[in-house]
Amino acid sequence: PLRDSNSNTVGVIGIGVEVTEQVTARKAAEEARSSLDNAVELGELGTWEIDLKTSHTTYSPRVAEWWGLPSQGATLDDVINCMHADDREHVSKAVAHAIDVSGAYEAEYRLINSVTQEERFIHATGNVSYEQNKAPIKLVGIVRDVTIQKMTQQELERQVHLRTKQLEEVNTDLQRSNNELMQFAYVASHDLQEPLRKIQTFSDLAQGRISDSNY
């Protein structure tokens, strides 16, 4: 309010600032976020974010369900401890490489739910966000359940291995049969040589006698 010397309100002073650009940018960000949320839901993906200063990890409800962790978040160690013991080292190395070197994270691992002990295969990707001084501040990404694809792949590999083994056994049997046939042919040929020689001798004698009787 604008007041006179007697504190009576005699007018109003106002300031107007154009915020069209900011509002437009906010609406675009909201639309992009909505599109991303729809894509994540449609693809049955999970989202996660790691605060690299505190190691506190937040995630979507789907991730909380898969991991069996509290919905409000957990430490990075808690998240990694839900992974199969044989996979934790390479996941930790992938996270460290993303933070220290590449800025991009990708890993595949076996996940064991901390409550139900259900096992599933997970494929995770993410990117590092940096402050203006280039210091990494967070790692943000998505996870996808690839259990069906992985099990299918393993079954195909098992079938290929089994079929290959069967073919090797068939080839071994064929080779053995071939060797036995070759040995039999050799023995048969050797055993038949003597009777054939005798037949040839008798044949020669018979021809000789026939020839003598013609004179």
Q: Can you offer a commentary on this structure?
A:
- There is one protein chain.
- With about 220 residues, the chain is α+β, with helices and mostly antiparallel strands.
- About 55% of the residues lie in helices and about 25% in strands.
- The chain has helices spanning about 20-40, 60-65, 75-80, 90-100, 145-215, and strands at about 1-5, 10, 45-50, 55-60, 75, 105-110, 120-130, 135-145.
- The strands form 2 sheets. Strands 5-4-3-8-7-6 form a 6-stranded antiparallel beta sheet. Strands 1-2 form a two-stranded antiparallel sheet.
- Strand 1 (about 1-5) and strand 2 (about 10) form a beta hairpin.
- The chain is rod-shaped and about 165 Å long.
Give the N-terminus to C-terminus distance in angstroms: 161 Å
Count of strand segments:
8
Percent of residues in helices: 40-55%
What coarse outline follows from CA principal-axis ratios? rod-shaped
Rounded to the nearest angstrom, the radius of gyration is 42 Å
By DSSP (H or I, 4+ residues per run), the number of helices equals 5
Give the overall pLDDT as a whole number: 85
- SSE pattern: EEHEEHEHHEEEH
- Biggest sheet statistics: 6 strands, antiparallel
Structural class: alpha+beta
Task: Describe, in short, the structure shown.
The protein has helices spanning 20-42, 61-67, 76-81, 88-102, 147-213, and strands at 2-3, 9-11, 45-51, 56-59, 74-75, 104-112, 119-130, 136-145.
Keywords for this entry:
215 residues; alpha+beta; 8 strands; 6-stranded antiparallel beta sheet
Would you spell out the secondary-structure blueprint of this structure?
Layout: E1 2-3, E2 9-11, H1 20-42, E3 45-51, E4 56-59, H2 61-67, E5 74-75, H3 76-81, H4 88-102, E6 104-112, E7 119-130, E8 136-145, H5 147-213
Antiparallel strand pairs: 1-2, 3-4, 3-8, 4-5, 6-7, 7-8
